[in-house]
Amino acid sequence: MSDSIISTRWTPDDVARIDAASASHAPLITPQRRVIDTLDLWDYWPVQRTDGHPAEIAGGTLFIALSAPILPDPDARHAVARMRLLHRVGADWHDLGPLLPDGLSPGSREWSGSAIVLSDDRTITLYYTAAGLRDEAQTSFIQRLFQTSGTLSVAKHAVTVSRWTAPSECVVPDDIHYTSEMTGGGAIGSIKAFRDPAFFRDPADGAEYLLFAASLAQSRSAWNGAVGIARRETDGEWQILPPLIDADGLNNELERPHVIVWNGLYYLFWSTQTKVFAPSGPTGPTGLYGMVADALFGPWRPLNRSGLVFGNPPDAPYQAYSWLVLPDLCVQSFVDLVGLTEPARDVAQARAHFGGTPAPELRIMLDGDRAWLA
Fold it and tell me: Is 90 exceeded by the pLDDT of residue 125?
């Protein structure tokens, strides 16, 4: 099958079709109350059923978020990120503490992923990014995909997930489709990707997949982002496959990619930022992008002919990021830099404007190759 998969390219011609005057923009975000007063939170996702719908657990929804202490420089959070478990019941959030025990993860920090509760309502399987190496002397940008399973327990609405299995590396870059070279560092537009695993079960045949943000191995461009994919085989192992989408020469980071099925069509979404488009142009706003296809392996067509679903508003181009579209078309993200029209001039200004908490939820509408904010 892998030999017959042809990647769809997201091209400069696609992005050039973005019309700034008519493009859809998210509404302005006002300062939001923090879910946890002492922590920054970002990149959050619900515990889902295998069909992608959030699981109802103890009268609410379990969420996993990246978390860090409130540091003077909000960008420094990426170097100390830990996954944290939260329970949302109605409008109320309850902090359940770190998701994984200290020392369990093989990285120096934990980055985004997805989590599935199995049909037994007791087992949660977590797919996530282990960034760096445990006990490394200098922070590195190595990224590896791991999976682990824990036991869900609910007693009088007290929710715990414990007895996590030893994390196992589930998908490894092959240096044919996806590069394992991560020494680009963390400068703007230079960090390479092998992260953000998102589980997807194809309703057409029940096959299970992981999508992930990747960087192309056979590229001559520094801007070589891709949406990677792997399929679970009958023995439980994951087979790496060619990318669904590549942005070679256009964009360096197609982050947190995920698929939903709506009215019989497949919709693939990702987040990206203006600063990671190739400087030769064209560029799009920081926003939610996507494509549509008749089947998982395409060919894919850019939504709205450009790929842009919606961007941050021109008056607040950095206000939110890391959008996740759920099967009911609800869109979740986190509050990034609120109220800035230009990049923060220094660390103090960035800290003063960084939200570090879930953003107000949005909703999109889908009709064939068109997508817009409800």
Answer: yes
Number of domains in the chain: 1
Q: Is 43 assigned to a binding site?
A: no
Burial of 203 (0-12, 13-18, 19+ CB in 10 A): middle
Name the residue with higher pLDDT: 20 or 25.
Answer: 25
Average pLDDT for 210-229? 96
Instruction: Work out the pLDDT band at 187, boundaries 50, 70, 90.
Output: low
Chain-wide mean pLDDT for the chain?
A: 95
Known binder of ligand: residue 294?
A: no
231 is in an annotated binding site: no
Please report the sign of the dihedral spanned by the C-alpha atoms of residue 233, residue 290, residue 111, residue 118: negative
User: Are 73 and 85 in contact, with CB atoms under 8 Å apart?
Assistant: no
CATH number where 224 lies: 2.115.10.20
* Residue 281 CB-density burial (10 A; 0-12 exposed, 13-18 middle, 19+ buried): exposed
Q: Is residue 34 a known part of a binding site?
A: no
C-beta separation of 256 from 320 below 8 A = no
Q: What is the domain range of residue 349? A: 2-373
Give the distance, in angstroms, between the CA of residue 155 and the centroid of all CA atoms in the same chain.
Answer: 31
Work out the number of other CB atoms within 10 angstroms of the CB of residue 96: 17
